[in-house]
């Protein structure tokens, strides 16, 4: 039992260290930062970390130091994690009780150097002094050393060393093992001593005989020896029990065995009845919990007893599964929000500045022609229009959006040789409802550029705003050129599939995509048209007051 508990602890630390290294290799941020530290040294690493911190939107950067800190807090037996680089003269050491930069440990360098030609993915180093701890906290440690390679070239860049306190092994020995004076020695695959509680140097020579046996028991000089050899990492654990300790306790066992047998018969009946009742109660708790979770409440947790039986394992596993699923959903939601925010920024960046360029050119020509009053009016309207355009607000009320659209039309009519007639019809109670900024202007611009019939003088665009149940509809109807069936199908396909194959549909698609990104499918634009019969575009948005829509859009934008 003593050998199994100690051996199990060493293998547990081995698996834990492997998980730490696997997480580093699979986490691009951690792996990239460690490679940068190995390549450039600690001072450059500080600049790298500060740059990453400033680049983040929330002024947070979870680098490998935070990850190392969580590992140390999670395992009290872990004393430190060190990064050794082939190119650097110093080692980066992270411990709860020390600084960050220390000279390289000569013992670690020499121990790893002996196996340089046959360095495997894991090398267990024997017990040695932790050089980075202060004298008051100085501890003997054993280490798990992992080589760090560049992914593509497989060049050795250095290694990561994870130290565990030797004293933590002693804590795994039970009271009975101490009472029987059980001695323990743990050997590395090369014969170095990780832990020694035998107290007799002659047992150290048993390593060459022990490592070839998977599990064995033997008598050696009136002592019972039990050994366990790990097949995965090759460590050998030897436990020695003095024979006289067994005989001294045998009489006590003989006297108590009969008494225990009698009590057991009585207790088993009481225990069986109690266990059946308790088992039934716990089964009912599991069933109740699964029903609640099945209804979609992933925050509910099933009570798990601490006795570690099968029902407890089921409850713990089920709770862990729900937690993992909840975390996955949260990560997927954040990822989707970030992706949509990037799409929103891209759509807003597509506001075509050609109108500004053309207007400025018209102003220049008016000034050259001496039409200073018209040029002044155009500059005044242009400044008012772009003053509202450059504001960072993403949501305005419908009346403000109509006012911006009117300024755009008025500015166009001043600078253009032909006049555009646009009529607005909105019920007063709908004025304070929210709408995404730049919803109408791209559609009016699209009508001016592509919909007006230059052969007639009564071109008219009617814009009506009305409410139907929980949604607001804005219809734009013109009597212009209309759209051919082939081109209309192309524009509808662009809206539905997210492609953008037609130049004339960019403004329409921009408005549609922004509405869908914020409010989801079912909202956006629908288009009806035929050649020579004009075009009808209907915008559908939720009927939400401006203030509420601002809160919603801002929370959406922040993710």
Task: Tell me about this structure.
With 559 residues, this protein is α+β, with helices and mostly antiparallel strands. The protein is built from 17 helices and 18 strands. The strands form four sheets. The chain has a six-stranded antiparallel beta sheet with strand order 3-2-1-6-5-4, with helices on both faces. A hairpin with a 6-residue loop joins β2 and β3. α1 crosses α2 and α12 packs antiparallel against α13. The longest helix is centred in the middle third of the chain and has 52 residues. It is elongated and about 120 Å long. The two termini are 53 Å apart. The relative contact order is 0.06. About 1% of the residues have low confidence.
Topology:
Elements: H1 2-26, H2 28-40, H3 42-55, H4 64-74, E1 78-85, E2 90-94, E3 101-103, H5 106-113, E4 122-129, E5 140-149, E6 156-165, H6 167-170, H7 175-179, E7 183-187, E8 193-196, H8 207-210, E9 215-220, E10 223-229, E11 236-242, H9 243-294, H10 310-348, H11 354-368, H12 372-389, E12 395-397, H13 398-415, E13 421-426, E14 434-436, H14 441-451, E15 460-468, E16 471-478, H15 485-497, H16 506-519, E17 524-529, E18 535-542, H17 546-558
Parallel strand pairs: 13-15
Antiparallel strand pairs: 1-2, 1-6, 2-3, 4-5, 5-6, 7-8, 7-11, 9-10, 10-11, 12-14, 15-16, 16-18, 17-18
Helix pairs in contact: 1-2, 2-3, 10-16, 11-12, 12-13, 14-16
